[in-house]
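Two folds, back to back.
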Amino acid sequence: MPISPIERGIFISLFNRGGAVLDLTISDFDSLTFRCVGIPLCKHYEKSKGKSLIAFLDSCSDEDALKLLNELMDYYELHYESEYTEPGSKADCLYSFRRYSEEYARLYHKACEILNRENAGYNPFEEPSEYLKEQFSSDYMSSQIDSLMRMREENPTDAIGKAKELVESCCRTILKETGVGETKDWSMNELIKATKQKLDIDTESVSDSLPEAATVRKILGSLSGLVGGIAEYRNSWGTGHGKAADFEPLFVRHAKLAVGSSITLTEYLWDTYLWRKETGRLK
């Protein structure tokens, strides 16, 4: 069921801090919202962070509302844990300088109930994963995507391994289609570097004359970080490496992070490849 206006008000009360949104700067807030829903809210609405958030939630789709509220909740849980965790119940909150608030704790738990209800019936990667299956002609690539979507909750450890394999397969497919030779022994960094060069999406290729150049550079510069993070996930917690007897797998949310990152990155690389191929701009 959709998040009602009253329920959206719970999130506003939790995140809106006197016109600000948590402790996010305007730049960070715009980057977060652009990455999440494709709109830098403050720049778009020309209002404060808090008012921009309210304006967006008043007019956006249920799907976009859920995407953004999940993203803000992730940020809140990381930076405000001591605000909703009763003193003494957790010894080492990362940002322990924030004081416990009974009111914010109440709002937090209500917000969690709403998100848990909505996320139970919502898969934010269903549409892009189906799109990728259609675009990749190989049965192997489609089976990888199917495995990712199934395993991210059933078997988080395997999902993390598959997340890295999806990006690798995408890069190898693009490089093969563009005439690059054998890449079997290439590392992840070598694959992504060569793919970015083939698609001409290195950060240096963004013209300073573009008004959005700084934002584009920030997003493109994060691609390597995404890939590196997925590779490290796989090396430490995913399939492909032996584990000690006392190995404890990560939670489902960590697998979802790896899967979401891999699908988003793969979709971007493949879309860029298709666009350059269709317009005759491949190197």
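---
second:
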Amino acid sequence: MVRTANGHRIHSVTRSFPLPSVIRLNRYVNAPYKGVNLTRQNIFKRDNSECQYCGTKRDLTLDHVVPSSRGGQHSWVNLVTACKKCNAKKGDRTPEEACMELRRKPYKPSYALFLRDITGAHHNEWDEFLEVKSA
């Protein structure tokens, strides 16, 4: 199955073809798993470089939702982007204990969605193939 890209075309010397936006394979050859590495930069990308408590984009660092000292893991679902001010305010507490609300629940991004999000290219015709959930 091929979905075209809004009337755009590619050309060879003698022919013209619709530019594909989505190519769905009927048969898949298994490739090595490509996961998203848990890094500081990737957490920032997932969180759109915004503090997950106040929304600022300045003086950012990482925060453990459940503090490490209380058994919180260094994982996708326990790390969020936070500004230094909010991180200091939260301290060694959970967001609930500090009366601070997370703007978005942390999650582990899928490889396909992560690539789409960091490139800034979002084509709605891809959604059904990437299993995108409506907000």
